[in-house]
UniProtKB/TrEMBL annotation:
Pfam families for this protein: ALKBH8_N, RVT_1
Alphabetized SUPFAM superfamilies for the sequence: DNA/RNA polymerases (SSF56672)
Residue span(s) of domain Reverse transcriptase: 1-226
InterPro entries the UniProt entry points to: AlkB_hom8_N, DNA/RNA_pol_sf, RT_dom
Official protein name in the record: Reverse transcriptase domain-containing protein
PROSITE patterns: RT_POL (PS50878)
Organism: Oryzias latipes
GO MF entries: 2-oxoglutarate-dependent dioxygenase activity; methyltransferase activity
UniProt-listed CDD domains: RT_nLTR_like
Top-level taxon: Eukaryota
Amino acid sequence: MKSFERLVLPHLKSFTSPLLDPLQFAYRANRSVDDAINLALHFILQHLDSPGTYARILFVDFSSAFNTILPSLLQEKLLQLNVPDSTCRWITDFLMDRRQCVRLGKNVSTTQSISTGTPQGCVLSPLLFSLYTNCCTSSHDSVKLIKFADDTTLIGLISNDDESAYRREVDRLVSWCSINNLELNTQKTVELIVDFRRVTAPSPPLILTDSPITLVDSVRFLGTTITQDLKWEPSICSLLKKAQQRMYFLWRLKKARLPAQMMVQFYTAIIESILTSSITVWYTSATTRDINRLQRIVRSAEKVIGCSLPSVQELYVSRTRGRAGRIAADPSHPGHSLLKLLPSGRRLRSIRTRTSRHKNSFFPSAVRLLNAL
């Protein structure tokens, strides 16, 4: 069955890709977790360049999101996205009346028929969920709704203490979830406020379905820790801890006299991949101390393997240029308009920034790196 699903997947994408919400980053070509984080930060930092502004960020958690899809409602949404009727009916039939049971040791439960949600491990499930939530968007320019599969983030860009648009969009999201059979998990939904004003007033709490939302100082967003002061030490400390733990295995391979070439491959796949996790997001805003701590891991690996390895700076530059190049080449990418060529066609237009926080973020830094080529 999965083989047939893999045949249906590109067929489904061919009809729906041009109509997908540009702020849905999951399961799309030339889109990554880093893109979602970088664009969210760009919206926030560009807004905070103006005086008297702050941002409220709602990190939404759904209860068993993939298991709540209604096939009949999904079929209507697919038809609106110009998917052929025959394909829609096949998908509905595929999701309806699924038989399943639970096995525990030698004990097997009675078989149940299920007609909601998508099967676990199904090839089509991630795309079907993205299509199901495609119409969930923001209607106000000052509120951005960024999605990565079922990870949904609502960013309110507040000016002059006017939160009315943000609160309306939160209410619209709650209403949309109710209509589309998605249940908000208010216990795990949290809010982060980024506010660098010298004089601030306590913000009224946000209420979802009669439950107050918890205000937090930091949150794990798509694998990266975001703090209310937008500093990256917690994320980098987490990466350092993981990389140091994996260095043990490199030592063991050295004692086993593994060839240097194979040790380099191990280092690249197991340790370097940790050091460069979301590096385009945090590197230019990291402190010199944190960068040096990361570089010490690289130097330790060089001593173990006995050859030179790319520095953290080199890894950042290569990944940023590669990521920015792909965004610049993809007109459908929501960050494409930020990488505009000057009339000469030789250099990119610089992005105006007023603060070092904004200047050191991904898009302004990427423009400088590409212009330096």
